[in-house]
Request: fold
Amino acid sequence: MGMGWNLLRRKALTSIGVALVAAGASAWAGAALAPPATTDVGPLPPAQGHVGAELYSFTFPDEDVIDRFVDGLRSRHADWLQAVLDRSLRYRAIISRAISERGLPPELRCLPAAESGFQARATSPRGAAGLWQLMRNTASPYGLRMDQWVDERRDFWKATEASLDKLAENYRIFGDWYMALAAYNCGVGKLSAIVRKYPGNDYWALRRKGVLPRETSAFVPQFLALTRILSYPGRYGLEVGWDTAPAWSRIPLDRCVDLRILSVKSGVPLDVLTAGNAELNFLLTPPASYKYALKVPEEYSQPVEKALAESDMPLLDFRVHLVAEGDTLSGIARKYRVDMDLIQEFNPNLVPRVLRIGAKVLVPVAPARSSG
Reply:
């Protein structure tokens, strides 16, 4: 599961920004993270210019390898770290609240940094998606929907809840947070098979034996290194702004809504609407049957609700057409009794002469154009 440190390293100068520094080879051991029942340390907000001890809900071992990770990131990838810290602000309140509700270690709020760099639209070559880099077979049992309209692995709210539930389940299986994190990376089945072959429930012992998958062997210590930096970014050379983490509202919808039109009607920037609803495969919310809830920062709730209540908001219904062999744009238009120009309006990247088999075409079933 997840894009992983080594994968991110290979994706230098991609949308995530800069690659992460490679893992050190040294093995090190430390006390396991406190189980949920005994975690009594609340969320630790980023601190600027702190002095004194760093406080965590578990004990960090005094090992040079952690300092080497930290020093490497600070010296070679400071811009990436700053970007991750800045992006995390958007999701911090939701993640911290979900962790607190479950009684989990607050440091888990840093896991999306290792997984996706806090990018909701991040997708790995293996197909993991979202902040928490969930695979399809991992996300499905937790009720996340993945179809032609949405990929809820990119829904920061639902994916956070699913991922934390998965981590808590991993902990119940292995009884150790380091093992739970390892299982999150390589899968419960694979880690269980390793434990059966090499009895014991000590992540660090398995790591020293060299029996863990390469990425998993690096994953936990790398996560801990990022946790140190992002928990106290001010002391690690990062700039911490005064902005508070936004609170989010979910607004139920009873019809398809074009985000572009909603942006104009409400005055809410389009990038705010798209950032909050990254799970949408189009700039359009799903049909009413989905009972979709639009996510917006609370400061924008009132103008969005007012715009949705206006009678002149378009009431269009849509279908998603999967291009089959022999399909043409004119043929699709005839099938749905829609003007070709209207189809192209809702599919700006569509090239009529090169319709790729399996591609998705958004088709408005009502031919009338919106006056807005």
Observations:
- Strands lie at 248-252, 293-297, 318-322, 360-364.
- Residues 78-102 form the longest helix (25 residues).
- Residues 2-32, 34-46, 367-372 have pLDDT under 50 and may be disordered.
